[in-house]
Amino acid sequence: MIPALAVLLLAQATQSPALSASRSVHASGEGRVSTAPDIARVVVGVEAQEPTVARANADVTTRMKKVLAALEKAGVAAKDIRTLRYNVDVQRSFQGPNAGTVIGYRVVNQAQVTVRELPRLGAVLEQAVAAGANDVSGISLEKEDTSAERARALERAMSDARGKASVLAKAAGASLGEAVQVSEGGRGPIIPMGPMMRTAAASAEVPVSSGELEIVAAVEVTFALR
Fold it and tell me: For the chain, which residues make up each domain, given as ranges?
């Protein structure tokens, strides 16, 4: 029993460190895929300032009801209209001896509107403004489902990482082995490419340019070296 144990210990002690240590190379990769947006989100609202809060609120309420009716008539579904903000601000004077005196009230009512037919976006905006909307902002052109584009971006990111790792392996006098660890380096941003919206001074329908979106993915990969 003792001789067998001695032989085992001797074999472990004489094993080459170079053979027991695993070698690897780490690389990051990025992939990008362009796609066209298919929906738009925009904030549409009404604001008014009056000497009394009751008058300001009545004005905003009346006009906002007309705006919502116009949006419905333009084909926007009720589920695609969500109240985003309702706010009442006291307006005070900051001049002369009357500084701090209440001079009126400002009421704001905003809704986020999702338009699912991009060719109709300009007409929807025009009808909302014609109905009384005087606070339109935050337009965002998006793609509702980016899973397919994100998958392609991840594939390109993986290929990018493999290419970098191959260069490093060759420089180190080795060849690239299999990927032993892969992680997604955070969900990349969706980047608008080119102007997303144009405006014109004289046009019944607001002109809109959809442009393109860029889906970005990143990966971190560890490869074995041979």
Answer: 21-36+146-225, 39-142
pLDDT tens sequence across 78-123: 999 999 999 999 999 887 777 778 889 999 999 999 999 999 999 9
Measured distance CA(143)–CA(116) in Å, rounded = 10
Question: What span, in angstroms and rounded, lies between the C-alpha atoms of 181 and 184?
Answer: 10
Q: Is pLDDT of 1 > 60?
A: no
Strand pairing class (135-142; 39-50): antiparallel
**Which tokens belong to 92?**
């005070």
Q: What is the pLDDT of residues 26-59, one digit of tens each?
A: 999 999 999 999 999 999 999 999 999 999 999 9
Write the CA distances from 106 to 52, 67, 83, 100, integer angstroms: 9, 19, 18, 16
Helix (H, G, I), strand (E, B) or coil at 207: coil
Q: Tell me the two tokens of residue 73.
A: 């008539």
Residue with tokens 């397919």: 148
Using the 8-state DSSP alphabet, how is residue 100 labeled?
Answer: T
pLDDT over 70 at 8, yes or no: no
CA angle centred on 109, ends 108 and 112, rounded to 5°:
130
Q: Tell me the H-state helices in the chain.
A: 2-14, 17-20, 53-73, 121-130, 147-171
CATH class belonging to 21-36+146-225:
alpha beta
How far apart are alpha carbons 62 and 131 in whole angstroms?
10
- In the DSSP assignment, the letter for residue 74 is T
Rounded to two decimals, what is the model's pTM? 0.73
Class of domain 39-142: alpha beta
Q: 């032993």: which residue's tokens?
A: 180
